[in-house]
Design a protein that fits this description.
mainly alpha; 4 helices; elongated
Length: 107
């Protein structure tokens, strides 16, 4: 006679695995923020930068960001040193953003 499957136990195991994967993803995202130096930004600034990146539909800008990210992960020393700087001659996130009064323009 076949042993009946314990669907409840299988479902619980899948839920536990999903929870573990979500936790690992959250940890890795936090480590990424720290590794790039973005932890020095305020929470509101970091959230604003991420929202601007999500809302950006310019494929060339996204490709430039992808290349900088790939260089960062490949251990390119220049990419790591300039992680928080805009080295491409364009503003990093929002081309329409104006610097705050009294604040010098970005490099």
């Amino acid at each position: 006679m076949r042993k009946p499957r314990d669907y409840d136990a299988e479902l619980q195991a899948l839920n536990d695995k999903a929870k573990q994967l979500r936790s690992r993803k959250q940890t890795q995202l936090g480590e990424l923020v720290i590794a790039t130096g973005a932890d020095a930004l305020g929470t509101e600034v970091l959230a604003g930068v991420l929202l601007a990146a999500i809302g950006n539909d310019d494929p060339s800008r996204k490709e430039a960001w992808r290349k900088r990210g790939a260089a960062f992960f490949q251990g390119n020393a220049n990419a790591r040193r300039s992680a928080g700087k805009d080295t491409g001659g364009t503003q990093a996130i929002d081309p329409g953003a104006q610097p705050a009064a009294g604040t010098p323009g970005t490099a």
